[in-house]
Amino acid sequence: MGRSLKTYKQEKAAIKGISGGGKKTTVSATQPSNPIEGEIWYNESNEITYIAVENDTTSTIEWKEKSSAGGSGISLTDLSIVTNDAAGGGSIVYNDSTGVFTYTPPSVPDTAGFASAASIPTTLTDLGITDGSNGDVLQTDGSGNFSFVTPQSGGAVTVYSLQDSLPQSNNSVGDMAFAEDTDRLFFWTGEGWYQIALVNQSPTISGAQSSYDLATDGTPTVVTLTITDPEGFSVTPTYSTSGLTNQATVSQGTGANSNVFTITPSTNEANAGTFTVTFTASDGVNSAVINSTFDLTFAAPPGGVLFDTVGTTNWTVPAGVTSICAVCVGGGGGGSGSTLSTNGTSGGGGGGGSLNWHNDISVTPGEILTVTVGAGGTGGSVGSNNATTGGQSYIQRSGSDLIRAMGGVDGVYNTIGGSGAAGGQYLTINSEGGGSGGRGGGGSDGNVGGGGGGAGGYSGNGGDGSTYNVRVASTGSGGGGGGCAGTNSFTTQVTWGGGGVGVYGQGANGGPSLSAYVTGSGSTSYTTNSNGQAQQGSGGAYTRNYGGGGNGAEDDSGAQGANGGQGAVRIIWGAGREFPSTNVDLASSTTGETTV
């Protein structure tokens, strides 16, 4: 049956009180006094339920039977609650005929898509957001709405073949352009194109020497490079070679060791030589380069060469020879002839040549050195003061001296009290040791000819020749040659003189000759030595070679003065050899020596 809204509200309030909504429910046999609208009273004596309602006429609260208030009469056991699906803002409805309360929850946003999804969303479209075009970006309006939009243009780099082709309109701020013809990068500011500086600094490379001497036993040489790039990029070095054949192998490390290079030399002497490795570090734009020369040289076995032919020779340094030792002896001066065939003035003796030696002269295999051997001075003829000085002996490189020995001065006519010719002077330049030649003896009117001076020694001077009035010559020193006694002879050519010097290292001093001459009857009278020749220093033979000064002719012999002994040059090489006396003998040249 129909009910007023007020009656419905009263019943609803009463039921709420029963269910704990705050309205009082009384169960008793006596009617409660002063009820409040909506209270429930269950009369246990007659088992009738009453509800407190307002009288519409008197506005007082009265107890009315439940059925009288519009109900059909239900018991407490009839009360129940039913829940509907969510809809709208939600509601609760009571059916007073059945005692059923119906609850409809408020609706929430549609979750049907989530409920039906087989898995967690993985794309924006799974969340209900419509996809945009390629290159679009997702944008929010700040109110929970999302959409894809096309980004503002600008910022991309466009490549143009010609700088003049860059557009001057329809550009966006931030546009960039690269001109291939000028390698320039430009930025559009809204007003025009502005050039952006492009800077690429060169890498740096270090750690390699300019030259290396490779080991002949096969031990590798390791080169570790240090490479840096100012822009911070990783740079891997490379290498190339020039002149490399069989001298060695070159290998490069890998990965973190790509900056390590191993050069492994050959142990075969036939593969000796020099090559160059060029190390390069490039960042693709700029490069840094460093060159290293590698030399594989096998030391030559001990050897030597003797130059005893007067004149100049071009000598090529043998393979494997990087250092030489040398000794030079200058030519002895020629002895002077007499002034007349009879009763003239005797000739003076020539001075001895000097000796100089020098060790550890640096040379290069294959280079050409000039070697000159000085001649002995020519003896003077009768009546002519024409004896000649001994020649100089030396070694040169491109016209510059490496070592030089001076020749003895020629003998001349002399008068009473005159002195003989000077010996060759020992030079201290480009020399480590040696000695000057001995002085030639002076001649005189009606006397014997002067004796020739001895060649210089390895550590002292040659002996002096005897003079016309002191007919005793002196012994050489420091391995030098002895001086010669004066000549008293009727022979046509004087053939003796001061002692020379050997070139195979310092030995004994050369002894002098004493008064030796040929008698007027043609028979020879000797005081000492065979044939009157002084003794060679550092050798022992009786010879003017190398560097002995020639004797002067006797006053009335009509003879020509003696020639001086020629000079010589000897070159040796090999480890542990040096003048004046360390392994410089001929036997120490294990591969032999050549004579030029």
- Beta-strand percentage range: 25-35%
DSSP helical segment count: 2
Mean pLDDT: 84
Report the end-to-end length measured between terminal Cα atoms.
156 Å
Q: Any idea what the radius of gyration is?
A: 64 Å
Biggest pleated sheet: 6 strands, mixed
DSSP strand tally = 34
Query: Going across the major beta sheet, what is the strand order?
Result: 30-26-25-33-23-34
Uncertain residue segments? 1-8, 14-22, 68-72, 515-530
Estimate the global geometry from the Cα principal axes. rod-shaped
| Secondary-structure content class | mainly beta
Question: Helix amount, in percent?
Answer: under 10%
Question: How would you summarize what this structure contains?
Answer:
Helices cover 3% and strands 28% of the residues.
Keywords:
596 residues; mainly beta; six-stranded mixed β-sheet; four-stranded mixed β-sheet; 34 strands; 3% helix; rod-shaped
